[in-house]
ABC-type dipeptide/oligopeptide/nickel transport system, ATPase component
Amino acid sequence: MTAPILELDDLSVDYGRVRVLDRLSLTIRPGEVVGVVGESGSGKTTLAKAVLRAVEVAAGSRLVVDGRDVTRLRGRGLRAWRRGGAVQYVFQDPLRSLDPGIRVADSIVEGLRIAGVPAADAARRRSAALEAVGLDEELIARLPAGLSGGQRQRAAIARALVVEPRLLLLDEPVSALDAASRDRVVQALIALRDARGADLAMLVISHDIGSLAAMSDRLIVLDHGRIVEDGPTRRVISRPEHPYTGLLIDSVPLIHAPRANRPSPVPVRS
């Protein structure tokens, strides 16, 4: 069996005296797409930030990314690890990652330029990333304001992909989009999952269970900083084992079955 891309053991995060993540353990393997769902305040975004080491983890926690224990990295070591690009973060609002004052084309390869990657290689990697997310190269000559919300989000995903990460963290990637743009981004992520295979794992945080059903292998349900359910997406949606999961699913009128085997919609439990 291949080594995990991400291993969390007893991961805890405290904000002051409030425990936001409580001894959370999780493993993600190469090629796996894991969805994380839960109400606001359940700890979803804090989980992603902890993986990126953007928040401090409590004593006793262990965080291993692509075989390297990064739990205690500090200062230069932490900056060097982040710049290495093994983990990339895609924000809910792509304007947080795309500089509004420069062309999208330049924004996508900015990290490569800073790292000293030759211009020809950067352009090649940008083209491959744009193809992976289904975005026309002609559009990236514009400023971010000249793109639709869905186009900006796909450009932000391309920006993350050019550094060839092993793990992609997506925090509510479709929640700020209209229905048509949301569908295009979801389809782009499905195509990316199918094309990259074992080269890339994804952790997708969303309150949109329908979108997670379409793209994820596993679904994790968070409640007050704890994992209350973790299993194959189809099983979790059709036969939830935890009452909290059932309540979340009951709040969605209709959910489509995950992955390629989607002959018909999966109805909400009555």
